[in-house]
Design goal:
Its main location: cytoplasm. There is one protein chain. The chain is α+β, with helices and mostly antiparallel strands. Strands 7-17-14-22-12-9-8 form a 7-stranded antiparallel β-sheet. The radius of gyration is 26 Å and the shape is globular. 2-oxoglutaric acid (AKG) binds next to strand 12 and strand 22.
């Protein structure tokens, strides 16, 4: 059994094993990151698994590296599973190689093994823009520590009166003063002020804002948000018709990173230090979305930098910072006249949402498991069941990098494809024993007719023995789960199936459909404009959807429970949770099933194709990695962007 295809096991000598693992790591770096390693010593090393994407923090890695020689620079690119090191001499680098290669590092309760290889030069692309969105200002130390303490004390979370409106939302606590911000219609009742206005303890800071020219009138509405570590707020634009231009937000108790995104896909992560004031005006207030990704660690600059910080990819200055409880005070002025901003595409005053009173309304982003289950049943499972045969007819070409992953599996390996759709990946590598499952019985039937082994199953509870599979794939599945908990459960279930050392490949649809200045196929493809299919364009697994009662407003508005908006195919995403239309072709259904009908999707042919809507949660950069880092016993081996998808390869720990 000593064939080359069989994994080396215990009997192999430690050094040989280490060498093999290191070679494997450099192959992965070449294949997925385009990093060329060399065998002759140089001053530069790449440290596989030593990246921020593996949960390794700069200080810890730096300490280990400094122990080996005179360290000149340490570059840790954002979200990547590797770091670059430069030593003063190649002798130092060689010493580091000898001492550190194969060494384990314990970070954030997981252990990673570092593999070092020499490189001719270090190369880090800086893909994010460093410039803050126009109109955005962050003022550091805007309040003193004493003021911070006073303000925090003044928020009485226990008082559950009607004078202030308290809400324990799924992802954070909120409290409103002056006017209640309603998450059901994303607006305020302008004629119903709350009995309690903005507390006087806020006066000094508001007067300061006035004096400094950040505002010209005193705000009359305050929303206090409290985020525990791991919590966040979905990306949104504060409803134009609800509030005037300037929005102030004071960060108290802890820092955080807020993500700003332009509809063209540009994104900027902005560090909000504790006691800083964020001022959003003009373009940054009206056009860019803002949100806080729920996570327990943020990537932040490792050293103090003067002035407001767009946390970009300066890899010489990034580390991880553990989140703690942050309380923000957001001051706004209720708008009394319609908004006349210069951004009509996102302005609800200028393009009012079309939701007739009588029609059933579009579904909302789910607030709990039950909601989520219902939403997915209607807008994922049911839809795939309806569109199975048309869907399957559009799914034939495998995605090249998924195919590569499958072809790299050794003969005799066991593979599980969770959410296998029409089975297009089940026969790629005939040397492998493949089994697939899908939520859609119709799609499973198609697999069986094609001679594959497949069965009906939910991806959250797969009736297969754990620790069994050499590889699992989940291609275009996890974005159909509508809460973070359920997405996490799906990854956890995938990992459960892997045997120690087994690998899982996950693809999800990306919010970023333009990456490194390249538009994804999905944006470019004009063959089937109507059914531009997310991620998928080809790859999809199955979970289906259903006809939508009514189109939701496209304007992403404030805060939680927004209505889901209907995406226009082949356009950039401006929100993460959405409904993607599927225009059924081939006469499977002959009546237009979309209750209210979506004006933008109305087909021009005489016989209207029924339109179904599938729910998607499109992932932001780094989100898939953050999600996977919450799963025990597994490491992110690599992550990448592939044609509008975020992708990771996970490896289960060997124990
Ligand atoms: O926590 C923050 O700073 C922002 C809160 C926010 O965006 C909102 O309540 O609309
Ligand atoms: Fe907001
Ligand atoms: Zn507007």
């Amino acid at each position: 059994m000593d064939s080359e295809n069989v994994k080396p096991v215990r009997k192999t000598k430690e050094e040989k094993k280490l060498l093999r693992k290191q070679i494997k790591a450099s192959h992965t770096l070449l294949k997925h990151e385009g990093i060329n390693t060399v065998s002759q010593p140089t001053k530069h090393l790449v440290v596989a698994n030593g990246g921020l994407g593996n949960g390794v923090c700069r200080r810890q890695l730096q300490e280990v590296l400094e122990g080996a020689g005179n360290l000149v620079s340490l570059l840790m690119p954002p979200n990547k599973p590797y770091a670059f090191v430069t030593y003063a001499s190649s002798d130092d680098a060689q010493r580091a190689h000898t001492l550190i290669n194969g060494q384990q590092l314990e970070c954030q309760a997981q252990v990673v093994t570092l593999y070092l290889s020499f490189v001719e030069r270090v190369s880090c692309e800086q893909s994010e823009c460093a410039e803050l969105p126009p109109g955005l200002v962050v003022l550091e130390d805007y309040v003193s520590q004493e003021e911070e303490a006073c303000l925090l004390q003044a928020v009485d979370w226990a008082a559950d009166d009607n004078a202030t409106a308290n809400k324990a939302l799924k992802h954070r606590r909120v409290k409103h003063y002056g006017y209640e911000f309603r998450y059901d219609n994303n607006n305020v009742d302008k004629d119903k002020p709350l009995p309690t206005g903005i507390p006087p303890v806020c006066d000094p800071v508001l007067q300061r804002c006035l004096k400094d020219g950040h505002i010209s009138v005193l705000p009359d509405q305050l929303t206090v948000n409290q985020y525990e570590s791991g919590q966040g707020i979905p990306p949104h634009i504060d409803t134009h018709s609800a509030f005037e231009d300037t929005i102030l937000s004071l960060s108290l108790g802890a820092k955080t990173v807020m993500d700003f995104r332009h509809p063209d896909g540009r994104s900027v992560a902005v560090l909000l230090p504790e006691r800083s004031l964020l001022v959003m005006k003009e373009e940054s207030r009206f056009l860019w979305t803002h949100g806080i990704t729920p996570r327990k660690f943020d990537m932040v600059p490792a050293h103090y930098t003067e002035g407001p910080v767009a946390v970009t990819s300066d890899p010489s200055n990034l580390t991880l910072s553990r989140r703690s409880t942050r309380t923000s005070l957001t001051f706004r002025t209720v708008r009394r006249t319609p908004c006349d901003c210069s951004y009509p595409s996102v302005c609800d005053s200028q393009c009012p949402p079309v939701i007739p009173d009588s029609a059933p309304s579009a579904p909302s982003v789910p607030q709990g498991n039950k909601d989520a289950f219902r939403l997915e049943a209607q807008f994922v499972h049911q839809v795939y069941e309806e569109i199975a045969s048309h869907f399957s007819s559009t799914r034939h070409s495998p995605w090249p990098r998924v195919r590569d992953f499958l072809l790299a599996l050794p003969a005799g390996a066991l593979l599980a494809d969770i959410g296998c759709g029409n089975g297009k990946y089940l026969g790629i590598n005939p040397e492998v024993m493949s089994v697939g499952c899908d939520r859609s019985a119709s799609l499973v039937q198609i697999c069986i007719e094609r001679g594959f082994q497949a069965f009906v199953s939910d991806a959250l509870d797969v009736p297969l023995r754990g620790a069994t599979f050499d590889a699992c794939i989940s291609i275009a599945v996890i974005h159909h789960f509508s809460t973070q908990e359920r997405r996490l459960a799906a990854v956890t279930e995938l990992v459960r199936l892997l045997k120690p050392g087994g690998r899982a490949l996950i693809y999800v649809w990306a919010m970023e459909q333009e990456y490194n200045k390249q538009k994804s196929k999905y944006l470019k493809d004009s063959r089937d404009k109507e059914n531009a299919n997310p991620v998928v364009d080809e790859a999809e697994h199955s979970m289906k959807q259903s006809p939508l009662p009514k189109p939701a407003p496209e304007v992403s508005s404030t805060e939680v429970t927004p209505k889901l908006s209907v995406h226009t195919n082949r356009t950039a995403f401006n929100t993460q949770d959405l409904l993607v239309p599927w225009h059924l072709k081939g006469g499977e259904k002959n009546a237009c099933q979309q209750g209210g009908g979506s004006s933008t999707d109305a087909p021009k042919t005489p016989a209207p194709a029924p339109v179904f809507h599938r729910y998607y949660h499109v992932f932001q950069r780094g989100e898939l990695e953050s999600l996977c880092s919450l799963v025990k016993d597994v490491q992110i081996q690599t992550s990448y962007h592939d044609q509008g998808n975020w992708c990771v390869i996970l490896e289960k720990g060997t124990k």
